[in-house]
Design brief:
The protein is α/β, with parallel strands linked by helices and 240 residues long. It has a single domain, classed as FAD/NAD(P)-binding domain (3-Layer(bba) Sandwich), CATH 3.50.50. The protein is built from five helices and eleven strands. Helix 3 crosses helix 4. The chain is elongated. Flavin-adenine dinucleotide binds next to helix 1 and strand 2.
Length: 240
């Protein structure tokens, strides 16, 4: 049965990188805001390589920071290793890339949203969106709750109409369900680790001892993070 839940000034659909910043910016400007996400535990999820920054994206993170966003702060707090790329080239292309603790980043962002004034976070899938004659948006969740908002920000990212290609079977989902036990691969595992050990030259790895870099422009003391020892492995001959 459909029921009316609540009215907001701004509704943001999605709590990935884009939705988080949109929700925080709106709430920090004083608008009553709601952020919808399909799963509260996947707020700010990084689906593949859990890294922030890198070539061109490092600049973007700093721009978000300059505009009062959260990404740079979260990255500095939850990084496990950082590296300034392109140091051999001019300063215009120096680019900070940080490897992030994925779960810690997600927890940090969830907390940042939850403690933000003017902001509610809701685990709900929006299944329909309409606009009435007065220009008010009506958002409907899968569980038939109705929310209204003067303004809607769509930040549904890589989810919308996502499909998993294996290539067969294909199914409409964003990720493969990792709850399945992966039992089929177990007998092959000892063979795989022997092959890996015989081709991987561990003694060629170079330990990284450089001081960590930071995204934040503000000179705050560096927070204690769970940093781990990092080694670099060359994958191609260095340019001479
Ligand atoms: C397999 C894979 C690998 C990737 N690898 C990299 C990489 O190595 N480096 C890199 O920089 N980028 C990578 N990306 C891209 C990166 O994930 C995206 O650029 C980034 O996550 C996009 O952020 P976003 O906020 O736009 O959306 P997303 O992070 O996709 O977040 C979308 C949000 O919308 C919510 N949502 C969607 N539909 C609804 C709905 N109907 N109702 C309510 N909530 C909804 C979801 O719950 C989620 O919170 C990869 C993407 C994928 C899929």
């Amino acid at each position: 049965m459909q029921y009316f839940a609540k009215q907001y000034e701004v509704a943001v659909i999605g709590a990935g990188h884009a939705g988080i910043e949109a929700g925080l910016a709106s709430a920090r400007l004083g608008c009553s805001t709601i952020v919808f996400t399909i799963n509260l535990d996947w707020i700010g999820n990084m689906p593949c390589n859990p890294s922030i920054g890198g070539t061109s994206k490092g600049h973007l993170v700093r721009e978000i920071d300059a505009l009062g966003g959260e990404m740079g702060k979260a990255a500095d707090k939850t990084e496990i290793q950082s590296r300034m790329l392109n140091r051999g080239k001019g300063p215009a292309v120096h680019s900070l890339r940080a490897q992030i603790d994925r779960r810690e980043y997600s927890k940090y962002m969830k907390h940042a949203l939850e403690k933000q004034e003017n902001l509610d976070v809701k685990q709900a899938e929006i299944v329909d969106l309409t606009r009435d004659d007065q220009g008010l948006w009506h958002l409907f969740t899968r569980l038939e709750a109705e929310y209204t908002a003067k303004c809607v920000v769509l930040a549904t990212g890589t989810f919308l109409g996502g499909r998993v290609y294996i290539p067969q079977p294909r199914f409409p989902r964003r990720f493969i369900n990792f709850k399945s036990p992966c039992a089929a691969l177990k007998p092959a595992r000892p063979r795989a680790s022997i092959a890996a050990a015989s081709t991987f030259r561990f003694w060629k790895c170079k330990k990284v001892t450089k001081r960590p870099c930071r995204f934040l422009s503000t000179p705050k003391p560096r927070p204690k993070t769970r940093r781990i020892a990092i080694s670099l492995t060359p994958t191609k001959k260095p340019n001479v």
